[in-house]
């Protein structure tokens, strides 16, 4: 699943609420990740793009959190070893370098990607049980507010309606999963940060990024206010539990 960085930040903020207080801090964490992914793309080609890998690795050698990392040193030595990329050894070198790169990713302590081929094929199976639940008025209000916010995001990003950006329905998916957790997230993240951006925004300031503009427009449309109010009104209600 390929999420935009903003959506990924929202998801990971639930796991580590204080790690990236702002999206800008998360962007700084993701810059090395983009470089590592670029190296992976380069070495997967029929003719590996080793010069690009060397350039990115050298940049990472001067990056806080990567400088002096023995895995990075090993990756640099592997790329610079011409013999390792001969016709007889190239496939083994690809796998070895790819494994080193995956181990260097900054989000490894929060995210784990498990490939099916690495698992036992005789895996446990879940038996789904359908339960009929009657939501309270407060729960329905929050769920509908999440749906309205998701629809507004999609309409703003794609006003012509030609593209359905499913990643933008993350608020609705979060609300469907657990309303109390979603309410806590809204109160913690949106209530403090979105309103702070709008209240402190200078009307004469010409420098404002897309995310701030979206939040400003959302509040004018009323969806953001309703979402925050509905989250605050939910309280301890949890019909699923």
What does the secondary structure layout of this molecule look like, with pairings?
Layout: H1 5-15, H2 23-43, H3 50-60, H4 70-80, H5 90-104, H6 137-157, H7 170-177, H8 179-200, H9 210-221, H10 223-234
Helix pairs in contact: 2-3, 2-5, 3-4, 4-5, 6-7, 6-10, 7-8, 8-10
Description:
By secondary structure, the chain is an all-alpha fold. The protein has 2 domains: 28-118, no CATH class; 137-234, no CATH class. Helices cover 60% and strands 0% of the residues. It has helices spanning 5-15, 23-43, 50-60, 70-80, 90-104, 137-157, 170-177, 179-200, 210-221, 223-234. The protein is elongated, with a radius of gyration of 23 Å. The model has no long low-confidence stretch (mean pLDDT 79).
**Number of distinct beta strands:** 0
What profile does the largest beta sheet have? none
Number of helices: 10
Instruction: Give the total of domains.
Output: 2
Measured on Cα atoms, how large is the radius of gyration?
A: 23 Å
Helix-residue proportion: 55-70%
Principal-axis shape equals elongated
Order of helices and strands, N to C?
A: HHHHHHHHHH
pLDDT < 50 runs, ≥5 residues: none
| Proportion of residues in extended strands | under 5%
Gap from first CA to last CA: 29 Å
Q: Structural class, from secondary structure content? A: mainly alpha
Mean pLDDT: 79
């Amino acid at each position: 699943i390929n999420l935009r960085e903003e959506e990924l930040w929202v998801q990971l903020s639930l796991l580590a609420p204080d790690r990236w207080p702002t999206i800008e801090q998360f962007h700084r964490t993701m810059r090395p990740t983009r470089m590592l992914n670029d190296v992976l793309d380069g070495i997967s080609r029929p003719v590996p793009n080793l010069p690009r890998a060397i350039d990115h690795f050298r940049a990472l050698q001067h990056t806080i959190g990567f400088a002096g990392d023995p895995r990075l040193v090993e990756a640099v030595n592997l790329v610079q070893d011409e013999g390792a990329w001969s016709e007889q050894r190239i496939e083994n070198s690809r796998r070895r370098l790819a494994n080193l790169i995956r181990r260097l990713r900054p989000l490894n302590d929060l995210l784990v990607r498990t490939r099916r081929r690495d698992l036992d094929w005789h895996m446990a199976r879940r038996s789904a049980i359908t339960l009929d639940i009657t939501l309270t008025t407060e729960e329905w209000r929050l769920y509908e507010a999440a749906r309205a916010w998701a629809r507004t995001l999609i309409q703003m990003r794609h006003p012509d309606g030609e593209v359905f950006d499913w990643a933008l329905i993350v608020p609705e998916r979060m609300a469907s999963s657990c309303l109390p957790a979603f309410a806590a997230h809204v109160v913690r993240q949106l209530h403090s940060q979105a309103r702070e951006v709008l209240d402190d925004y200078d009307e004469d300031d010409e420098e404002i990024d897309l995310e701030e503009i979206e939040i400003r427009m959302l509040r004018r449309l009323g969806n953001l206010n309703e979402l925050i109010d509905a989250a605050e009104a939910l309280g301890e209600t949890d019909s699923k539990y």
